[in-house]
Amino acid sequence: MQQKTKIAPSILSADFAKLGAEVAAIAAAGADYVHVDVMDGHFVPNITIGPAVMKALRPHAAIPFDVHLMIAPVDAFVAEFAAAGADIVTFHPEAGPHPHRTVQLIKSLGKRAGISLNPATPLDVLDYLLPDIDLVLVMSVNPGFGGQSFIPSALGKIAEIRRRIDAVSAAQGGRAIELEVDGGINAETARQAVTAGADVLVAGTATFKGGPDAYAGNIASLRS
Ligand code: DX5
Ligand code: ZN
Q1: Domain boundaries, the chain
Q2: Ligand 1, pocket-test mutation among 10, 36, 149, 181, most atoms within 8 A of CB
Q3: How far apart are CA 73 and CA 98, in angstroms?
């Protein structure tokens, strides 16, 4: 059942010299999650934020921190991000040999677990994970950078995952499993993604354009 669309601004597009203030500003502007893109220069061709920065940011907003790990191996860093204040920990199944073990590790730390699918990653990886996870993150760009264009084939994938989530959720008494989309979200692709079945939209460029005075309007226009 779809409720109000959630907006998760990616702080990759924030002013890195003022990250604490940026996090506070998006929370005040109505963001639902703070999306933290963690990159290692190895799994993806960029380096961003580590657990120390994440820990320093955590007191600046009361909304959940949605941590997107684009690192390999992943297991060694899950506990650090959990301790730094992550609420949702999402990883890519290609980042390690045992994705089910990684899900168990995240859940054992009391955090919500997410699986992220790259544009070319097929859905069958979800077959035995969906009953245990809390979120599926569909990449609508290749991970590594903000400001890329939405890849249209993500829409069919979102629709198919929506069906699978609804079936598993119904079999589990309506347990919440969120369907989040990440990359190239603007007013038009937001509408397309929500129509296809997304319930959480990551938005970096579209949230942070225009500076802090524009954030509330930017977030509201993505949600409508
Ligand atoms: C890409 C990241 C995204 C990205 C989104 O690897 O996972 O979160 O920063 O940025 P926009 O919204 O600018 O495409
Ligand atoms: Zn992301």
Answers
A1: 6-223
A2: 10
A3: 10
